[in-house]
Amino acid sequence: MAGKTLFDKIFDAHIVREQADGTVLLYIDRHLVHEVTSPQAFEGLRMANRKPWRVGAMLAVPDHNVPTTNRLRGIDDLVSREQVETLDRNCAEFGVQEFAMNDKRQGIVHVIGPEEGFTLPGTTIVCGDSHTSTHGAFGALAFGIGTSEVEHVMATQTLLQKRAKTMQVRVDGQLGVGVTAKDVVLAIIGKIGTAGGTGYAVEFAGSAIESLSVEGRMSVCNMAIEGGARAGMVAVDEKTIEYFRGRPFAPQGELFEQAAAEWRTLTSDLDAVFDKVVVLDAAEIAPQVSWGTSPEMVVPVSATVPDPANEPDAVKADGMRKALVYMGLTANTPIEQIQIDKVFIGSCTNARIEDLRAAAAVIGNGKVAANVTLAMVVPGSGLVREQAEKEGLDKIFLNAGFEWREPGCSMCLAMNADRLEPGERCASTSNRNFEGRQGQGGRTHLVSPAMAAAAAIAGHFVDVRQL
Amino acid sequence: MHAFTTHTGIVAPLDRANVDTDAIIPKQYLKSIKRSGFGPNAFDDWRYLTPGEPGMNHGQRAKNPDFVLNQSPYDQATILLARQNFGCGSSREHAVWALTDFGFRVVIAPSFADIFFNNSFKTGLLPIALPEDSVDELFREVAAHTGYQLTIDLASQKIIKPDGSAIEFSVDAFRKQCLIEGADDIDLTLKHAADITAYEAQRQQTAPWLFLDKRA
Ligand code: SF4
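Above: the input entities. Below: the structure tokens describing the complete assembly.
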């Protein structure tokens, strides 16, 4: 019999019962909650007179609607404020632990989960948010769910699931200087397409993935959903284990060692068979820039904007034409000639300490270009912000003309006051370039933190490898 | 949940691939703490000529005459015909609520994003994946006949065309049953509460570090 994949190991360890048709009742170890997708679920519990099954398996945080300036003043937008206050009330009523808006530990839900050691290897983790795939970087099975399922997990600590197919995406070899985890995942999506991972749990492997830091692996798994896969994962190694030592929610002392021994088994067996294998050569990956309105519309920074006339598939060519119109771009324009208006360094993809260090290193003593009207850094959590300030990174950003903000989702999706105006073009370290994502009519180019920083200084995209 | 047995309705063609959940319901409407009222804002950026915010009187906003759902008879459509990877992007179930609030009961496309597909069943919206060429043919037929209607029979898993011919579709047996009965998943799961408790007890033995359940 063939060995087991990492996905199968975790899935099998969480089966409560299995129906004849293969539907599994899957136990959920960790449930992260934020203000946007939970109010209707709490309301459902209340209406059915139910209690959460295991309140200690939940951790809540407001992140999407919180302001990134003047936070002590509260939230100006009344609708946003009501949603955040509703989360506060629900957590108090049901006894759910919450890092409220002004708690130092508040941050983007996918940043604080691992940071607190709430995320752990080998666990099943869900959240009413598609980027829950991020947590798979630690050898966990983590995926996003809708509000009805949020309520189901609250009430039963389980989900009804079918076993996913498995895909291995292997990136072999060594990444070039200036090429980051973000470029790797954008290149992967460019290759498999936004629906390439649909129905699969994707395990990222190969020497290039192994050589990434755990934070880099988080950026890769974060965008698994952009390739259509609900779950992205990376096998556990010593870097994973060391990451959790001393984290508040992680086991301590003897129990940690016991857990670590178990975690070391969380790799795909050598003879495991995947339903699909995709291989990329790390050496061929250049810094990436998205040009369109879907994350698969991405090219190396040295390339030009693609021409729909060269696309044989009619539906695809039509999509490209619509994207060019929306993005205000002409086919065959060199990427490096595209001027930008705003820069956003933040989001659950790229707002951890290493991301901020990488951006600051590119900035050095540089200044934000005159044509850039706003450049902002939004740390992923209060603790990331604190660490960055300890290292003096805030000074580098401020000195260059960046704004240094309070943590939250911010302009990744513009539910708070941070947004693009119609027609504005942004170099963004976030994960989605959909129409209107960063503000109605706004134009998003997805890049790594280093590339965003370089674009801020130059006023247009530049190849960080040439700096 | 809304039970689903058979349904007959007008088909609206939405001829673009990768329609994402941000397009189906833009983020500003996710600030609502309710499960209903999203219909007027389904496809908001495409449907209206002016930017929308929660609390506006959407009936008074200028509509985009070029957008298919603003055109008669598609403004009365209950079946949406779309292209591949429909519903990609975020996990927001609000996307499904917006479609059902608008009046849709069925979405037909060559493929769907996983989370959207899952969410649909929970709210009584039936997503049907058909081979690419069947979808192409439906697009052609819709274009050729004003007010083109289809009948969806979930029990027999058939889409019945105006000429009486039928296209079969597949649907997961358990999900089909839940839709037909309009069953509450949570009630069904709680029938197995003893199994969940037993699982937890066993897991607590093998992986005690997962049950620290610490409150800071
Ligand atoms: S940072 Fe962006 S992608 Fe991440 S959880 Fe927030 S809104 Fe979603």
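Note for the figure: The CA atoms of residues 87 and 254 of chain A lie 36 Å apart.
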